[in-house]
Amino acid sequence: GTWTTVWTDGLTSLDRYKGRCYHIERVFGEKDQYIAYVAYPLDLFEEGSVTNMFTSIVGNVFGFKALRALRLEDLRIPAAYTKTFQGPPHGIQVERDKLNKYGRPLLGCTIKPKLGLSAKNYGRAVYECLRGGLDFTKDDENVNSQPFMRWRDRFLFCAEAIYKSQAETGEIKGHYLNATAGTCEEMLRRAYFAKELGVPIIMHDYLTGGFTANTSLA
């Protein structure tokens, strides 16, 4: 279907929109392996969409049955396209400003065991780490809303741990509350709840939650 000539081809300029393989080189020391350099016109990509970019570059291509093996080795994005992405809401400097920590590395850890603790004991572990000198602690990516520890209970106990450790140390503390969920709507609900609690940090697993959800959260 993709390579079939149809009458609608004449309604646009295929030369303008088609990708071009401008260089092929053999992989050193390998038989029947090559590196192909392919360029695509910018008009093929929706502005500010990581999802569309990867769909166009690896989504369809990796699904072709004619290809026995394929690997994306490198990706170079023009500055003109990069500028269409809003990027993260802030960087390391703002994070330091929020925590009021300068001139040294920020110290943190992931709470262990990552699974099996009750929300109360989980919050206790967060408190002990923050009270002991860490700047922040973090949920593991696997920690979402399991039967032994529902997300709302975890958020509440972690917020209590943050505020208690701050009061006792006089320092700003944080905990990466994992807002990753089964739907984008639920993810945003958890993120807004964390915001209502006044905690400074949340996290989202973009590898499983998806680029679109991550962009919406940002």
UniProtKB/TrEMBL annotation:
**Leader sequence segment:** none
Q: Which PROSITE patterns match?
A: RUBISCO_LARGE
An example of a Gene Ontology BP annotation on this entry?
photorespiration
Q: How is the cofactor bound?
A: Binds 1 Mg(2+) ion per subunit.
Family that this chain belongs to? Belongs to the RuBisCO large chain family. Type I subfamily.
Q: What quaternary arrangement does the UniProt entry report?
A: Heterohexadecamer of 8 large chains and 8 small chains; disulfide-linked. The disulfide link is formed within the large subunit homodimers.
| The protein's name | Ribulose bisphosphate carboxylase large chain
The organism encoding this protein is Cuscuta australis
